Amino acid sequence: MPERKFFVGGNWKMNGSKKEIDEIIAFLKAGPLDEHTEVVCAPPSIYLDYTHQHLPGTIGLAAQNCYKVAKGAFTGEISPAMIKDVGVHWVILGHSERRHILGESDLLVAEKVEHSLAQGLGVIACIGETLSEREAGKTSEVVFRQTKAIADKVTASGWDHVVLAYEPAQEVHAELRKWMSENVSPDVSAKIRIIYGGSVTAGNCKELARESDIDGFLVGGASLKPDFVQIVNARK
Ligand SMILES: O=C(CO)COP(=O)(O)O
């Protein structure tokens, strides 16, 4: 069975300023960070370049979104080519806030994943149901529908550059891995990292990290605080 390197993403969402970023970088530098964990921070796009200039090279960077074509008349959007041009190698796509607040469809998210992979970015592809969908017992239906939209656009080798981020927990992670095995391939299912994106804190990270199908985290609020170091080190 392939080794899946633990992956912790810090999604800063629409937070931060140069001063706050300096503070985050200071606690990341102080660490120490478990070298067996892949760490990727995602600042707002306007700060990608600034963060790239100051962050240690051992920590990766992600944009929080991008568009599905290289350039053109798409006011307010950024492209994978631009993300790469400032030295950044990852992008988060399909975050629940983009799906539900900004109205991104499964197809749009999948097209963004396709274009980003074609341009050579790594993709943190987010999937997850809303609370009302969960309460209606639709978790698997929604999550598999979203995953299928993405899977339809990813080539066999493309999966090497995808991390799947899902909210609720081990049970669904295990179901997702089974879906990947049956619908993509046993090989991809064994290799792909499925990370947990539901309010991870310094308090709950160690227990979550013990689950066999949880290969890391996508952290929101706690990634802005020194607690993030403990989360990165959850498997230590
Ligand atoms: O959306 C999330 C990660 O992208 C989770 O956010 P919080 O960790 O702030 O709950």
From TrEMBL:
Gene Ontology CC annotations of this record: cytosol
Pfam families (UniProt xref): TIM
NCBIfam families cross-referenced by the UniProt entry: tim (TIGR00419)
Protein family (similarity comment): Belongs to the triosephosphate isomerase family.
Catalytic reactions of this protein: D-glyceraldehyde 3-phosphate = dihydroxyacetone phosphate
Claim: tRNA-binding is one of the keywords in the record: no
Source lineage: Eukaryota, Metazoa, Ecdysozoa, Arthropoda, Crustacea
Quaternary state and interactors: Homodimer.
Superkingdom assignment: Eukaryota
UniProt-recorded Gene Ontology molecular function terms: IgE binding; triose-phosphate isomerase activity
UniProt cross-references to Gene3D superfamilies, sorted A to Z: Aldolase class I
EC number(s) from the headed UniProt entry: 5.3.1.1
GO biological process: gluconeogenesis; glyceraldehyde-3-phosphate biosynthetic process; glycerol catabolic process; glycolytic process
InterPro entries for this protein: Aldolase_TIM (IPR013785), TIM_sf (IPR035990), TrioseP_Isoase_bac/euk (IPR022896), Triosephosphate_isomerase (IPR000652)
Enzyme class: isomerase
PANTHER family xrefs: TRIOSEPHOSPHATE ISOMERASE
Keywords: Cytoplasm, Gluconeogenesis, Glycolysis, IgE-binding protein, Isomerase
Identification of the protein by name: Triosephosphate isomerase
UniProt pathway annotation: Carbohydrate biosynthesis; gluconeogenesis; Carbohydrate degradation; glycolysis; D-glyceraldehyde 3-phosphate from glycerone phosphate: step 1/1
UniProt xrefs under CDD domains: TIM
Annotated organism of origin: Darwinula stevensoni
